[in-house]
TrEMBL record:
Residues 667-739 form the ACT domain. GO terms for cellular component: plasma membrane. Residues 366-397 form a coiled coil. SMART domains: HDc (SM00471), RelA_SpoT (SM00954). This is Bifunctional (P)ppGpp synthetase/guanosine-3',5'-bis(Diphosphate) 3'-pyrophosphohydrolase. It comes from Allotamlana fucoidanivorans. Belongs to the relA/spoT family. Keywords: Coiled coil, Hydrolase. InterPro entries: ACT-like_dom_sf, ACT_dom, Beta-grasp_dom_sf, HD/PDEase_dom, NT_sf, RelA/Spo_fam, RelA/SpoT_AH_RIS, RelA_SpoT. The keyword Hydrolase applies. GO terms for biological process: guanosine tetraphosphate metabolic process.
Length: 739
């Protein structure tokens, strides 16, 4: 770099730093500014010789992360300083945590240490477990140190996603999948809705770039029409609000690209058929005492002019979400017969919705500030307390609880409890107290006896019946949905299993003694192999419950002389199940469509996965399984996100190289208005396409509407796309989709 370039860069760094101080959500005192300045100088020194992949000075990254923390999340000077320092210990040999503690105190040192631990997790090379899921669990454990660790990590991830263009495509894919899998749900749960939306949209940009760009362009094209519609709707409301002397602002909020995509997939509709592509937000000024009254007054004004959908009213003012979110959501029939969502919030509620828990700091004093996150952290700790060894299951269960909508139910005394949607009466029991859950015998909902698997609804009053003799059994895992209940049940079942195992061990010792066999390490191993079990605990447990009886043990004793032979046989069988290192490439002949894998574009043996049924031309990737070799999935397969995030080291790039020979099964769903000769029209179209062979067809007609499934055999996705286009043109057909 020339002296002029260095000077320009230094000016840009100074400008970025000044901007950081300007945009801070909290008012910075003189001491705050001195603290942030010291952190900036240490970060500048620590990263002085570093550059990012894009070529810019590394210091721009911590400044950008601190800016997100200050402006978008709205945290205090301590957090801003920690964000500036978040990579210093990891990247600079000149700085240790001790140095940071001496210079900035214990709190900042704890946060930086937590962030350093999380960064170092992803560098571990333990191939036996799902790295990302295990790292996620360890990352949550840093909450014991300080919740700001997680919040700054989310800001760090957002900036990395915003500046990922210069990375390799495979790296982009992995980071984007990981973001959707872990960081977006966490941002959602903390109440950082804006950041969650940005993370989802940016992830889609890299996981499905064509889809992302297509929706983005369509949004731009329809923006003018959308703005006009929002203006028409708002003008009607404004007149009425002005008449009542409200101080307010009305904004149109576009739906995120990711949520439009999700709606298109879930409902099987095109972009044009997604009607609620935006919401209208009314933000009013109010004293905290009048907030609720004014919100319902605005509701009354809106519904005077537009007909509401009573099924779509959401009152999160009376019962706020556990994230702290408060608002009144109304869905009304707007002009041109379109449903419009109207969100009514006070300025305070809006800040909480935009900034998450940080906004609580502005409205709470003293000890209350620290308490605002307490409930959420307690829930996390419960989920972590009894987490199973299978990290992927833990993450899936955890995410389920993070993303789920909430229901509100009452205790017999009238206390209100919040639970995830889909929670059962057994979940409610564990939500009250672990001991209540453990002793549950039954439940009453609204005075009627219900099973433990009964799904609760908002407004239910629930009473739990307990008994000293009750204890968890394996069936309870089918009834419980929340992480807390499942964790406690699994923990209790484990303890029970251990106790039975200890009793079983003593029973086994006595029975083997009668057969003149000592219970030692060698005989235990022989027994485990003989009964095809995994561990000695499995053996003792089965003896304890009586599923391994005297006759079976006598058979073992008589065959013991041949144990060595059977052990060798087992070894050979096990070896046969291990995937071959050398795959027989000659089995794939040039007569078939095939895939090539990796940079070298090798032809390898593979299987097509049943979960998404890829066909030639689809965007795909290979996944190296433990026992079935390479399985091929579509890029938009429902399981793709989990696989790419958790098992990145097993993912192989793949592409089709020939799509002219092999044939593939595809299912087409059609629906529309029934009329005579419709089936004949459909079969004629299919038979006219020489490259399509129809395997089966089934139709159902109900009150003038029909739905049908057609299974066809095709050679590639170009042929099926043409067929879908032709079917759409048939009179009466409304929707045609490929499953």
């Amino acid at each position: 770099m020339t002296a002029e370039d260095i000077e320009k860069e230094n000016a840009a760094i100074a400008k970025a730093y000044k901007e950081l101080l300007k945009v801070s959500y909290t008012t910075l005192s003189k001491e705050d500014k001195i603290l942030i300045r010291r952190a900036f100088e240490v970060a500048l020194d620590g990263h002085k010789n570093q550059r990012r992949k894009s070529g810019e000075a590394y210091i721009f990254h911590p400044i950008a992360v601190a800016k997100i923390v200050a402006q978008e999340i709205g945290l205090d000077a301590t957090s801003i300083a920690a964000a500036l320092l978040h990579d210093v210990v990891e990247d600079s040999p000149d700085y240790e945590i001790d140095n940071i503690e001496k210079e900035f105190g214990k709190t900042i040192a704890t946060i930086v240490d937590g962030l350093t631990k999380i960064s170092s997790l992803s560098k571990e090379k333990d191939m036996d477990v799902s790295l990302q899921a295990e790292n996620f669990r360890k990352m949550l454990l840093t909450l014991n140190d300080d919740v700001r660790v997680i919040i700054i990590k989310i800001a760090d991830r957002l900036h990395n996603m915003q500046t990922m263009d210069s990375m390799r495509p495979d790296k982009q894919d992995k980071i984007a999948s990981e973001t959707l899998y872990i960081y977006a749900p966490l941002a959602h749960r903390i109440g950082l809705y804006n950041i969650k939306t940005q993370l989802e949209d940016l992830s889609l940009k890299y996981t499905e770039p064509d889809v992302y760009n297509d929706i983005l362009n369509k949004i731009k094209e329809s923006k003018e029409e959308q703005d006009l519609y929002i203006k028409q709707f708002s003008d009607v409301i404004k007149k009425a609000l002005d008449k009542e002397n409200f101080e307010y602002t009305i904004k149109g909020r576009p739906k995120s690209i990711f949520s439009i995509r999700r709606k298109m997939l879930n409902q099987g509709v095109s972009f044009d058929e997604v009607y609620d592509k935006f919401a209208i937000r009314i933000i009013y000024k109010s004293d905290i005492t009048d907030e609720k009254f004014l919100a319902w007054k605005i509701y009354s004004i809106v519904t005077d002019h537009f007909r509401p959908n009573p099924l779509r009213l959401r009152d999160w003012i009376t019962s706020p979400k556990t994230t702290g979110y408060e608002a009144l959501h109304i869905t009304v029939m707007g002009p041109k017969g379109r449903w419009v969502e109207v969100q009514v919030r006070s300025e305070r509620m809006n800040e909480i919705a935009e900034k998450g828990y940080a906004a609580h700091y502005k409205y709470k004093q003293g000890r209350e500030k620290e308490d605002s996150l307490e409930n959420w952290i307690n829930r996390l700790q419960e989920a972590l307390e009894n987490s199973e060894s299978n990290a992927v299951d833990f993450v899936e269960q955890f995410k389920l609880n993070l993303y789920s909508q909430e229901i509100y139910v009452f205790t017999p005394k009238g206390d209100l409890k919040s639970l995830p949607k889909g929670a059962t009466s057994l979940d409610f029991a564990f939500n009250i107290h672990t001991e209540v859950g453990m002793k549950t015998r039954g439940a009453k909902v609204n005075g009627k006896l219900v099973p433990l698997s009964h799904e609760l609804q908002t407004g239910d009053q629930v009473e739990i019946l307990t008994s000293e003799n009750s204890k968890p059994n394996p069936n309870w895992l089918d009834y419980a949905t929340t992480a807390r209940a499942r964790g406690k049940i699994k923990s209790a079942l484990k303890e029970d299993r251990k106790r039975i195992g200890e009793e079983g061990k003593e029973i086994l010792r006595r029975k083997l003694k009668q057969l003149k066999i000592d219970l030692n390490e060698s005989s235990i191993n022989d027994l485990v192999n003989y009964f095809k079990l995994k561990t000695s605990l499995d053996l003792f447990y089965r003896v304890g419950i009586g599923s391994i009886d005297n006759t079976m043990l006598k058979n073992f004793a008589s065959s013991r002389s041949n144990t060595l032979v059977s052990f060798i046989k087992n070894k050979i069988t096990r070896k046969a199940n291990i995937p071959k290192e050398e795959l027989n490439k000659n089995e794939i002949t040039t007569n078939y469509d095939s895939l090539v894998f990796g940079k070298e574009e090798e032809r390898l043996d593979y299987k097509l996965s049943n979960c998404c049924n890829p066909i030639p031309g689809d965007n795909v990737f290979g996944f190296l399984t433990v026992s079935e070799g390479i399985k091929v999935h579509k890029k938009n397969c429902p399981n793709a996100l989990s696989l790419q995030s958790n098992y990145a080291y097993r993912i192989m790039t793949a592409k089709w190289i020939d799509s002219s020979q092999q044939e593939f099964l595809a299912q087409i769903n059609v629906s529309g208005i029934d009329h005579i000769g419709l089936v004949n029209d459909i079969t004629s179209i299919i038979s006219e396409n020489m490259a399509v062979n129809m395997k089966s067809i089934s139709f159902e007609s109900n009150d003038g509407l029909f739905s049908g499934k057609i299974n066809v055999v095709v050679k590639n996705n170009t042929i099926i796309k043409k067929l879908l286009e032709k079917l759409k043109k048939i009179n009466g057909i409304d929707k045609v989709t490929r499953v």
